[in-house]
Amino acid sequence: MVQQRVLILGGTGDAASLAESLAQAETGWHVISSLAGRVGNPRLPPGEVRIGGFGGALGLADYLRVQGIAALVDATHPFARRMGWNAAAAAHEAGVPLLRLGRPPWQAGPGDRWTEIDDWDAAVALLRTRPRRVFLALGRQELAPFATLADTSFVIRSVEQPDAGLCFADAQFVLARGPFRLEDERTLLREHRIDCIVCKNSGGEATFAKLLAAREMGIEVIMQRRPPRPVVPEVVDAAGAIAWLRALPA
């Protein structure tokens, strides 16, 4: 049987889960996973993997045509602003059906003390109002705006070591990759006497425990809202993506 080719724009747990599910389910799809290459030692999903950019929307459209891609799944991080729009433009240009696979955003519940902001400059302005002990749960490429805060003590958690040239007045670095347990998050917040968490509304279960701990402990959260994405068909898990792929014309 000739397999149709599906390109998964990945780098997330959702993308890896879909690639693994397709490999196990024998759905008749040949999987190609694309990773941006921003992490030095990424977890490679099953199936064919390519690493690196495409050269914008036109480059991605050319790749879809040349490789004979029959379906495109955008499973990139919710904050991969440019890639979502490039995927929509490329899919339209190449005439390839596009699906967005993404976890729903977190929603504040009773007891949460969330302040939602659109960019890190707004977060810095909030933190500048008084000395704080802040837990930064961000990627290493997004830390620079916070280095300007001389009166703030930071605990910074990222997958990889931040750039050596980045200088904080008072910071401890924790290198770790989720999922994180609630008990461990409670311990981290308590031992470092954290009074504010800064994070992005990534959604999902892997990093939600810090927000549960913050709710229990009455800790403030400054959370960046998700950027807008193009309107395309969307599912929240691998099962939904597989059902979408199976419904496509052969």
From TrEMBL:
GO MF annotation list: precorrin-6A reductase activity
Database matches in InterPro entries: Precorrin-6x_reduct
Domain of life: Bacteria
Pathway(s) of this molecule: Cofactor biosynthesis; adenosylcobalamin biosynthesis
Single GO biological process annotation from the record: cobalamin biosynthetic process
Keywords: Cobalamin biosynthesis, Oxidoreductase
Name the record gives this protein: Precorrin-6A reductase
Organism of provenance: Dongia mobilis
The organism's taxonomic lineage, starting at the top: Bacteria, Pseudomonadati, Pseudomonadota, Alphaproteobacteria, Rhodospirillales
